[in-house]
Amino acid sequence: MQVNGFKRFRLATQAIALGAAMAVQAGAAEARDFALVFGNGAYDHLSPLASPSRNASELSEVLRRLDFDVLELANGNLGLMRAVLGTFARRAGAEDTAVLYFSGYALQRDGRNYLLPVSAQIDGADQIAEQAVPLDQAIDALSGVGRLVVIVDACRSSALTGAVASADGLADVSPPKGGAIVLAAQPGTACIEPDTAVGFSPFTSALMTHLPQRDLAFADLMENVSADVQAASGGAQRPFSRLDLAEPLILRPDEGMPQFEIVESNTEIVQPEPDIDPAQLPRLVQTELKRLGCYSLRVDGDWGPGSRRALERYLKAMGRPATRQELTEMMPSEALYREAAAQDEGLCPPVIVAPTRTTTSRPSTSNSAPAAPAPKAPAAAAPAPASEERVCTLFGRPVKCGSGPKTD
């Protein structure tokens, strides 16, 4: 049985905790890792974006696997974004590390950056402050966090540039004290459009690739991410990062000797599944789509029109419908397979076919055989012939016929 792309194994005996782990639990509270992830793509008054919700969903899973406590908001309006920021600020403390990530539309005006909620309807520069979330205010709201990393993948060129925004991309910004600021592209430059076949922006895709590496300083992490993005864009996009750190920031330190917890008997232990053969991905994705009720054809590993229709039903059921062009270019991926494997059966609603009403059609007069003649009514009985009265004469005089003269 697969859950979230992992195989589950049952522990038959009780595990014994190491003394070091028990000592840590008995001591002071440990520093915690938090993440607030925004993914805005379904805009009400701007062209919709396909990648932000996918970026946010997959990055949230990566951070959870790194033991981050993740708060994720997809397609939030202005009120929701402000409320979630306030909630997040109250959760993370001075001993903690927090990551603030935003993917969607953002703009710069007079050297100040703004994050756009899906409800934004901005017709002039004077409406920006009341329709968007200033990035510097978001950073100030999290000033009580010990180490804050702000990541903004929102450098898209848009129709707002000119009348509303000062320029493409975002403005230069200073990092929070004791933290870091990261932009997907250099200030004043726009990002390249994401590859719809992959579904993620080049920057977030590279970020998810390198985040799980152990004992990697944040500065080195961003160098690796930048190298991947420049290679993917042919040098057209180069991420920007600025740090204010008293000591190296490592999001996933090398823990050395494994630490164990005391667990009860029969507790389920999760171990990673082996790497997936890319050649098997079409068949694996078809299998999961069939389990979810999205795919009704034979599982054969041939990714054709039937598979794309099934993928269209799946994406619609997941709340992120794709265009026909995106479906044509989208191919089975490991991320898609693992996401589908984590869903419950019956995700796609059944297709209801209306019953066909059978009607009796009248035979065509031109092609059908001639109709049998209607049975004739029985002929009326012929009237009995009128009896003819004979005329007889006797001695030249007429007399009644019928009998001769009586005889005694």
Integer-rounded radius of gyration: 41 Å
Number of domains: 2
Coarse morphology: elongated
What fraction of the residues are assigned to beta strands by DSSP? 15-25%
Please identify, by name, the CATH architecture of the largest domain.
Answer: 3-Layer(aba) Sandwich
- N-to-C SSE string, H for helix and E for strand: EEHEHEHEEEHEHEEHHEEHHHHEE
Regions with pLDDT < 50 over 5+ consecutive residues? 1-28, 257-263, 265-272
Helix content: 25-40%
Q: How are the strands ordered across the major sheet?
A: 4-3-5-9-10-11
Briefly characterize the structure.
The protein has 408 residues and is of the alpha/beta class. It has eleven helices and 14 strands.
Provide structural commentary.
The chain has 408 residues and is of the alpha/beta class. The protein has two domains: 17-243, 3-Layer(aba) Sandwich (Rossmann fold); 278-341, no CATH class. Helix content is 27%, strand content 16%. It contains eleven helices and 14 strands. It has helices at residues 19-26, 51-65, 78-91, 128-131, 135-141, 202-210, 218-233, 281-291, 305-317, 324-329, 334-341; strands at residues 2-3, 6-10, 33-39, 69-74, 97-103, 106-109, 112-115, 133-134, 147-153, 180-183, 240-243, 268-272, 391-394, 397-400. A six-stranded mixed beta sheet has the order 4-3-5-9-10-11, sandwiched between helices. Strands 1-2-12 form a three-stranded antiparallel beta sheet, with no helix packed on it. A hairpin with a 2-residue loop joins strand 1 (2-3) and strand 2 (6-10). The radius of gyration is 41 Å and the shape is elongated. The model is unreliable at 1-28, 257-263 and 265-272 (pLDDT under 50).
